[in-house]
Amino acid sequence: MSDTAADPRLLRAPPKRGIRLSWADERFRSIIWQILVVGVVVGIVWWLVRNTAHNLEVRRIATGWGFLSREAGLPVAESLIPYSPTDTYARALMVGVLNTLKIAVVGVVVATILGTMVGIARLSKNWLLSRIAAAYIEVVRDLPLLLQLLFWYAILQGLPAPRRALHPVEGVFLSNRGLKLPWIQWQDAHSFALLGLILGIVGAVFYARSARAKQMADGQPRKVWPVAAGLVLGLPVLIWAGLGAPGRATSRRCAASTSRAA
Question: Other C-beta atoms within 10 Å of 88: how many?
Answer without folding.
Answer: 14
